[in-house]
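Archive entry. Fields below.
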Amino acid sequence: MTVIALDVMSGDLGAQECVPAALCALQDDPLLELKLVGQPEIIDALLSAAAPAGALRRRLQVVPASEIILMTDAPREAIRRKKDSSMRVAIDLVREARADAVVSAGNTGALTAIAHFVLKCLAEVERAPIMSAVPNAAGYTHILDLGANVRATAHQLEQFAIMGAIVARDVHDTQRPRVGLLNIGAEESKGHDLVQEAHVLLRAWADSHRHRDFEYVGFVEGGDIFTGKVDVVVTDGFTGNVALKTMEGVAGLISGRLRSEFTANWTSKLAAILSRPVLKRVSGSLDPRRYNGAVMVGLRKVVVKSHGNADRVALARAIAIAATAVRRELVTHVQQALEADAPAAP
Amino acid sequence: MTVIALDVMSGDLGAQECVPAALCALQDDPLLELKLVGQPEIIDALLSAAAPAGALRRRLQVVPASEIILMTDAPREAIRRKKDSSMRVAIDLVREARADAVVSAGNTGALTAIAHFVLKCLAEVERAPIMSAVPNAAGYTHILDLGANVRATAHQLEQFAIMGAIVARDVHDTQRPRVGLLNIGAEESKGHDLVQEAHVLLRAWADSHRHRDFEYVGFVEGGDIFTGKVDVVVTDGFTGNVALKTMEGVAGLISGRLRSEFTANWTSKLAAILSRPVLKRVSGSLDPRRYNGAVMVGLRKVVVKSHGNADRVALARAIAIAATAVRRELVTHVQQALEADAPAAP
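PREDICTED_STRUCTURE:
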């Protein structure tokens, strides 16, 4: 059995979506057990309303937590003051080995801070980045860091690359992932000292033959995230977060324009009706719910961050990612790879 | 008369598009004079083929330059070795006051380096950023720096904000531009030390009442580039370049998906025919050609960078932007604003 602690109260939609997501995930995965962490009266009411089958209900346990960390709470305050919050209690369950992994849709800053504080990084890891998938022309590109660390040294970027390749392989079944370092041009001379240094480290890493399972392709540009040229794109949390939100912003702009133009007059409305299956397929293929579940990699345990506004479908996907990460022994593989890499590090 | 030196040979499409663009620009603007810089035999052949009216032809002069700076040329080598290149000769014309501004679709790194080397920054300016417009839900957002400087100090970001607001006002007619600083969250506590410092400088700048014409709205996120929340987004050249290319990449991914889904079967092909006007309006409203022409601001003269693959329509737009910048006395206004700001600077 894989046991996952689910922070039920956090996220924009809270227990309303988390409880149905939990039932969905249990239905999909007979080897899964869930601990729903939050206010019991709310969870129980939602469970009674959903009335799951007994066999399902037995793989589900409610763990009480009285507080909720809000999206506006500062990470430090969240650590210090909200020790009985659903996020903290869920993470504590993992530390106490009462759960194998934690999934939360809550405040990213607080989750990053509490996960680092309670679960700690692996010995070799300096910072744990957040990694998620975004659609590309051929499938998915995994990007890290998406905002856990606003700065990264060259050595940290090298570690992000190694960890990112392992997540792509172990969790997302990408054989021999191609890893690229985000820069403002593909030419060797481009970029600042930090990406230049990281590039040298990654070249050495690629040449060392210790990581035959991954390929380092060098510098990539923002546009390459979407072409399928690479499987993993490595950058610092500031740049990664800007890229992710830019991506979401452009997609929103284009879909807004399509919506307003398709409803502009009666001929365009007719065209919209006929185009509905096409538009549905396109938006479905780019649907962020399909790739929800960002892994915080480099910690001693598996932590998965769900999008704040994730609905039940998206949340169930994040739970499945956490379960896969546990079963494929992600943490052990990351540790082994970084231990093997340690002598080469500065 | 406004005289613009046009680097005819650079860019992916070269003289083939530059010469028709020049004729277009002259047609649109009777107070414009152009100096076409490049290989005379090529330019003359294209001019003969186009056979412009005599009145138009008289506002056009060919200035010979034997070399071409390639997209692959390193900036330093371009400065040192290609002194008779079309880009260099065009910039020299501006330095010698034989032209008021220069427009080039060539190698960004080389253009940045040669423009800085030959024309120099204004006394108060440390680095000249590149600024361009991208579409948002309501009109356009201007972003800088898009890649002229891979790093920027807090003081440089402050200068980018001031210069960006002036370009938005003087060249793009945005009254009282709202300026935002790109970060990974809108909350005051977010981001690294550098954006935090720049934020303090910009708050002070906004409070100083010396720049009543602009408004500083604080931190914005990647998604805010497209909502119309601000008119100017300020960031360093690394982040700005990644955001720009990410934006282009996503737009390409979505239009690729639409194309393939609209041609998937006969019903979708029928829907495509009916949707053609809608899709044309959407892609037209997002057409990068409509906002071509990035101003390199902070130099002693007006320099406008066109997209490398710009066609005649896009190039004519870049020429028009350069002419507007000259007529609105952009350089003088930038100088005055930074002189006024100088005492407050660290």
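CURATOR_NOTE: The two ends of chain A are 40 Å apart (CA to CA).
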